[in-house]
């Protein structure tokens, strides 16, 4: 069973804190009745919101023809927090009368309101870890809700043979996944504490993309980046680069594209 993951995180050179995580499973048509869902998404409330909110990059901006200035760019706030705020605010106001909800939704994002939403709708990393384990093990669950472990003998679930978790061959895929895999492992206090059946590595689709570009003889630009496959008519397009679930779905589409070459 293949799972495609993506995360958003805050990194300050000393630590990597999970902000949000999205996971998408491949479609298994032969046991649809015991799959509890094909997507998982969660927002953490354990990351250091204040530090992440105030994190910025210095960018040189051209102010006029002969003048350049250094400007603080709050990248996380603009690209990651803003869409999270919008989604959570929509959830918060979904049951309000239209005019009231519009008033709230039009209110600009600020630290205080964002913190309140994260506290209400975010989850602890421990809870996220438990939910991910349940999500990954969903195809290996008995009718009574009991999970199959490595010690479970051959069983029949809804007349479908189910074997041990090793035989289910769980695989994880990400794109530029080094940091995502670190924060994923941190949810379980390290790979040594992974649940039964979880592999201790993640397949990187970016590496596979570059390998295929080189193998298929495509040319690189002056910086050494290959773009030929990315210009293929069937290459999947990204709609939202800063949403963990949207990126996880895109990772699945990229895997399917690369697998058809």
Which strand order does the major sheet show? 3-2-1-8-9
Q: Measured on Cα atoms, how large is the radius of gyration? A: 21 Å
The profile of the biggest β sheet is:
5 strands, mixed
Instruction: Classify the secondary structure makeup into a structural class.
Output: alpha/beta
Alpha-carbon distance between the termini? Answer: 21 Å
| Unreliable sequence segments | 28-36, 148-163
The geometry reads as: globular
Tally of separate helices = 9
Strand content: 15-25%
Order of helices and strands: EEEHEEHHHHEEHEHEHH
User: What is the total tally of β strands?
Assistant: 9
Whole-number mean pLDDT: 82
Query: Which range best describes the helical content: under 10%, 10-25%, 25-40%, 40-55%, 55-70% or over 70%?
Result: 25-40%
Keywords:
two-stranded antiparallel sheet, 9 helices, alpha/beta, 9 strands
Structural account:
The protein is an alpha/beta fold and 261 residues long. It has a domain at 48-121. Helices cover 37% and strands 20% of the residues. A hairpin with a 4-residue loop joins strand 1 (2-11) and strand 2. Helix 2 runs antiparallel to helix 3 (98-105) and helix 8 runs parallel beside helix 9.
Compact overview of the structure:
By secondary structure, this protein is of the alpha/beta class. It has nine helices and nine strands.
Helix and strand topology:
Layout lengths: L1 E10 L4 E10 L13 E5 L5 H6 L2 E8 L2 E7 L1 H19 L4 H8 L5 H11 L3 H12 L18 E3 L2 E3 L2 H4 L2 E4 L3 H10 L15 E2 H11 L28 H16 L2
Parallel strand pairs: 1-8, 8-9
Antiparallel strand pairs: 1-2, 2-3, 4-5, 6-7
Helix pairs in contact: 2-3, 2-4, 8-9
């Amino acid at each position: 069973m293949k799972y495609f993951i993506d995360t958003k995180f805050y990194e300050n050179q000393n630590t990597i804190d999970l902000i949000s995580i999205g996971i998408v499973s491949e479609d298994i048509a032969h046991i649809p009745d015991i799959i509890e869902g094909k997507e998982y998404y969660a927002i953490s409330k354990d990351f250091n919101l204040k530090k992440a909110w105030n994190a910025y990059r210095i960018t040189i901006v051209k102010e006029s023809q002969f003048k350049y200035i250094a400007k603080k760019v709050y990248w996380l706030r603009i690209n990651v927090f803003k869409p999270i705020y919008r989604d959570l605010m929509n959830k918060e106001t979904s049951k309000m009368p239209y005019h009231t909800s519009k008033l709230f939704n039009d209110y600009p994002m600020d630290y205080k309101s964002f913190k309140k939403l994260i506290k209400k709708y975010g989850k602890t990393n421990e809870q996220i870890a438990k939910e991910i384990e349940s999500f990954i093990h969903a195809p290996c669950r008995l009718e009574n809700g009991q999970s199959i472990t490595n010690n479970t003998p051959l069983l029949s679930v809804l007349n479908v043979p189910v074997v041990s978790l090793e035989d289910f061959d769980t695989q994880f895929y990400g794109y530029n996944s080094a940091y995502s895999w670190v924060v994923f492992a941190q949810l379980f206090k390290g790979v040594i504490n992974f649940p039964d059946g979880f592999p201790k590595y993640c397949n990187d689709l970016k590496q596979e993309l570059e390998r295929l570009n080189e193998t298929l003889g495509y040319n690189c630009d002056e910086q050494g980046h290959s773009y030929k496959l990315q210009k293929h008519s069937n290459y999947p397009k990204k709609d939202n680069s800063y949403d963990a679930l949207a990126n996880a779905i895109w990772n699945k589409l990229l895997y399917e594209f690369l697998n058809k070459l």
